[in-house]
Amino acid sequence: MYLEKKPVILIVDDEAANATLLANAFEQENLVLIAHSGTKALSIVNERDDIDIIILDIMMPDIDGFEVCKRIKNNPHRSDIPIVFVSALSETVDEEKGLNLGALDYIAKPFYLPVVRSRIKNHLALKRKNDLLAEMSQIDGLTHIANRRLFDETLAREALRLMRGNAQLSLVMLDIDSFKSYNDYYGHGLGDICLQKVASVFGSVIKRPSDLLARYGGEEFAVILPETDKLGAQVVAGKLLESVAALQIKHEHSVVAKHVTVSAGVASGSIKSYDDALPLLQRADEALYLAKKQGKNCVAAV
Question: Same domain, yes or no, for 165 and 253?
Answer without folding.
Answer: yes
